[in-house]
Fold:
Amino acid sequence: MIFINFSIGSYVSRKSHNHDVVFRIVAIENQTAFLQGVHVRLSADSNLDDLVIVSNADSSYQEDDDIIQRNAQDIKIDRTSYFYIPGRILHIDGDDDYLDRCMRFYQCMGIPVNGISIKEDEISNKIYDLLEEYRPDIIVITGHDAYYEKRNNIDDLNNYQNTANFISAIKEARKYEKNQDKLIIIAGACQSNYEELIKAGANFASSPKRINIHALDPAIIASSLAFSDKNQSIDLMKLLEKTKYGSDGIGGIITNGTMYVGYPR
Structure:
């Protein structure tokens, strides 16, 4: 059978999953398409006969603008008398498109950030040197992941596409800085093994319920911490509620913010 409508870059959904996620085709081998989510950090593969073309699927920036507006309204700071030095972020992403969207988000929020695109299985080899170079207060380690539900073992790291890679990267980052208040780590992607990421040393991780997370969710957590007072603990539940699926998608530990407040302006 010839599937003439499918090509690299086509937007598709899966009939077998009731068209729940819109994907972009990143590769085709024989009759199998390899997919990455347009709005969620999920990787998948599918037989071509299970796919349908989705028209006008890439409304990324319109959706991102709504998220930016909501988060900007949540930042309550007195700009008349005080000045502020938000925390510095290093964002490492396995997906170029998601990195671009997150960088746009940070820039709209006015946060100092460096963004690096590195494939998930290469992050652990490069992260220590990057931490020494950029010396961030917050590091995001993300990209794509997936839990292979058919294998029926939620605890086996072999049943996750990239969780083991994220764990290795976290451990390397903790060799650089053990103190979880001095270096805040946000790690994971869709359906990642949340418990193991936290055990490895992440402050925040996905995904407690093994569900998908939005492309901007790690950036939302990072930006909120960057704009939270260094001398105060964050409101954990309120912070998680800012993300797409709340505590089902991302969880973490109570952490101090990273922003210095000065006077006079």
Summary: The chain has a mean pLDDT of 91.
